[in-house]
Amino acid sequence: MQSIENLKRVSHVTRMTLYAVVGIFLTIAIYGFISQGQWWVTFGDNQFDALWHQYKESHFLLAVVFSPLMCCWLLGFYFLQRLLLALSRGLFYAKATLRFLKYLSWITVFYVCYKMIVAPVATYLVVSNSSIDISLNPITIIIVLCLPVLVHLFSAAAELDKENKEIV
Hints:
Helix content is 81%, strand content 0%. The protein is mostly helical. The protein has one domain.
């Protein structure tokens, strides 16, 4: 019973830490923009940042290309918070918890895949005759593609736990 309470506490502390880290990150970014007129954060990788600073007339187009990543951040943060909240309440095998975990894993898969193509697409749209660098990290791709499989295994474990409780 104490291990369940420890899991609840760790989930709660992780959730509060996540809020604090995001708050600190946003505060630093906004302060940098207000005090020096530039964001102290990057928009992706060095290639995208170079496009952002070099082609000021294409900011809207670059923002449109970048917006799915921002949506992934927001949705990922939302579902991670919901997942940690459910875990801090002890709902380890609830359907909602598994659903949040599934959403989070698929958002992560989309984010990683889209992040690999965002700089080449932005470069092609802004400067069509320039060279395009594509950066692939195989271990990241493998890990991210394993996330949905792990979530499926977690769901199957939840079903087995439910069946075991019904038998007893």
